[in-house]
Amino acid sequence: MKKVKLEVCVCTECVMMGAMEIIDSIESLKTLEMETDLYQNLDIEVKTASSVCAPKKSNASPVVKIDGERFEKANSATIMAKISEIANS
C-alpha cells in the first residue's frame, strides 16, 4: 500500500465542529491488529487553518485533506470510509 497523506485542520472552528473525534478515530487504527499496516502507511499531520482550510469557507468545518482531496464538513465515518477505500484499492 502506498503512503497516504492525511491532513486534519485543528483551527478553533474545526476543533469545535469535530476535528478531534476524527483524529481519535484515525488513531484507533493503532489498536486494531489487522489494521496496523494501514496505520503505518498513513502520514498524519494536524495543521492550522491556513494550510488545510484555505480558502476558508463558511460552514465548511471540520476540514480534512486526504492525498490533497479536500473534505468539508468531514466526520469520522466519512474519513474512515475513504481511508478504507484507499486501503482496499
Helix content: 25-40%
Q: Characterize the largest beta sheet: strand count, sense, and whether it forms a barrel.
A: 4 strands, mixed
Number of strands: 4
What portion of the residues fall into strands of 2 or more residues? 15-25%
Taking the alpha carbons of the first and last residues, their distance comes to 9 Å
Radius of gyration: 12 Å
- Report the structural category: alpha+beta
Overall spatial form: globular
Question: Which consecutive residue ranges, at least 5 long each, have pLDDT under 50?
Answer: none
- Overall pLDDT, averaged? 84
Helix count, DSSP H or I runs of 4 or more residues: 5
As laid out across the biggest beta sheet, the strand order is: 2-1-3-4
| Run of helices and strands | EHHHEHEEH
Can you describe what's shown?
- By secondary structure, the protein is α+β, with helices and mostly antiparallel strands.
- The chain is 39% helix and 20% strand.
- A hairpin with a 2-residue loop joins strand 3 and strand 4.
- The longest helix is centred in the last third of the chain and has 12 residues.
- The radius of gyration is 12 Å and the shape is globular.
